[in-house]
Design brief:
alpha+beta; Arc Repressor Mutant, subunit A; 3 domains; 8 strands
Length: 475
């Protein structure tokens, strides 16, 4: 007995909807998330690949579309407008332009601390070998200004570079190090915190309290670190007033050589994408023109499109389309950046007027709703972008923070609460510092802010502020 089975086959037509990003939109989204440095690298890469793109002359923009046979339907007049020209329409204030240019000029004149120290070494009357030792010490410094390598390691490094007749020993290196430590900032090249504290004290008036603190640091710095003040009092025969004076002097010393230096050991500048300045009519935002690529279509190459073979014609038109898309994407990026930043500044005017304590709660949705953009777009355009204002330079994401409810039914931002915590701790009695619970109660009583103690603890740790028992000066 056999069983036969038949299978039927049929064709079916099914319609489905699927979202796909066009190459132009993909490029626009990609450019949105680039930082100013990454954008410059992308522009350089695109200029190398596309012969139709060129940097625009600042004094005379090439009006290429009037000198070519390409129809205006295919090449809109918008293509010839550079991103910088289009953005100029947002604001023509001469004062703001001057302010932004002055700021960029200041950035270009800033030296790193490494360069400043090298300049000081050049002015110091070192013999050739000692100068080489000093420069080797300079290359061995950490960001905090401490010496990373031992005296023996520096001595070995120097001898590897010098001839046998000029070899140096540890004493030679140590002698040069003592000279370097007297450069500005004082104590640069200290081998540890103990040595750095002693160098600072040796430059001050040699009082009885100064000598006593030098003795404690030299012999028992661990007692200071552990805040074992009772043992210090017994061991060095100090009364309460003398101990208070010793600790007061200690608290006026710096923790590391580069703490209050205006420049860092290495170049790590932030070039702002937007300049915010106060004008007579209010706070104004303007794109930093130094970060805006000025591009245009090359008129000579554009004319080649209608000449040559069909294959060449297609290749050049491909270049033309890519160039037009790229310029359009750049314009879109800068317009979006300016629109979002303007909205942020408008929302956070109180911050620019009064500081962090006046920061308002703000989330991505607020800016997206106000600008008509998607939240993901706002997120991309604010990531890694910076603005410069009279209050300093900030990443755009700094202005976004969660909120806490107040007793009156209002809202206060997390950044404002952190600023209030910082202010309270700065003004507290060092003998009786505020506990986290005390800060919680004070914020509730003075500002009507309802916040849990654990939240205060989290904000305090975010600010890198020690707990109350560690901030207390005397047991």
């Amino acid at each position: 007995m056999t069983i036969s089975m038949k299978q039927s086959q049929s064709l079916q037509l099914q319609l489905t909807q699927q979202l796909r990003l066009t190459p132009q939109l993909q490029q626009a989204i990609y450019l949105l998330q680039l930082t100013s440095l990454e954008l410059q690298l992308k522009v350089e890469e695109t200029l190398e690949k596309n012969p139709l793109l060129e940097r625009a002359d600042e004094e005379q923009q090439t009006d290429w579309h009037n000198n070519t046979n390409i129809s205006t339907k295919e090449l809109s007049a918008e293509t010839s407008i550079t991103a910088a020209e289009k953005l100029t329409n947002y604001d023509n204030s001469n004062n703001a332009t001057t302010s932004s240019n002055d700021y960029i000029d200041q950035l270009q004149q800033v030296q790193t601390l490494h360069e400043q120290l090298q300049w000081q070494i050049e002015l110091t009357h070192f013999i050739k070998t000692d100068k080489f030792i000093a420069l080797t010490i300079l290359d061995s410094l950490s960001e905090q200004g401490f010496l990373n390598n031992s005296i023996e390691e520096i001595s070995s490094t120097v001898n590897q570079q010098l001839s046998d007749n000029d070899c140096v020993d540890s004493e030679d290196v140590l002698a040069v190090l003592h000279v370097v430590q007297q450069l500005e900032p004082l104590g640069i090249g200290s081998r540890n915190l103990q040595e750095y504290l002693l160098i600072q004290l040796q430059q001050q008036e040699l009082t009885l309290i100064n000598r006593k603190l030098q003795e404690i640091i030299s012999k028992d710095i661990d007692l200071l670190a552990s805040r074992n003040y009772q043992k210090i009092k017994r061991q060095y025969k100090l009364n309460e007033n003398s101990l208070t004076a010793v600790l007061e002097l200690l608290h006026h010393l710096q923790a590391y050589p580069t703490l209050h230096s205006k420049t860092s050991m290495s170049s790590n500048y932030i070039i702002p994408d937007v300049i915010v300045s106060k004008q007579s009519h209010g706070w104004q935002t303007q794109l930093n023109e130094n970060t805006i690529p000025r591009l245009q279509i090359n008129s000579i190459y554009a004319n080649i499109i209608n000449a040559g073979s069909a294959q060449q014609h297609a290749t050049w038109r491909s270049y033309l389309q890519e160039a037009r898309w790229f310029i359009s994407s750049l314009e879109s990026r800068h317009e979006t950046l300016l629109k979002v930043t303007t909205c942020i500044v408008k929302h956070q005017q109180a911050f620019f007027e009064h500081g962090a304590k006046a920061m308002q709660p703000l989330i991505l949705h607020n800016i997206a709703e106000a600008t008509g953009l998607h939240e993901s777009t706002v997120s991309r355009i604010t990531n890694g972008k910076y603005l410069h204002s009279p209050r300093g330079s900030f990443e755009l994401k700094y202005f976004f923070s969660s909120h806490v409810n107040t007793q009156s039914g209002g809202e206060v931002s997390a950044i404002a609460i952190q600023a209030l915590i910082q202010e309270l701790i700065t003004k507290e009695n060092k003998r009786h510092p505020y506990s986290d619970q005390k800060i919680t109660n004070t914020l509730q009583q003075q500002h009507g802010i309802n916040v849990a103690r654990r939240t205060i603890t989290k904000y305090r740790e975010t600010l890198h502020i020690a707990a109350s028992n560690e901030r207390k000066c005397i047991n």
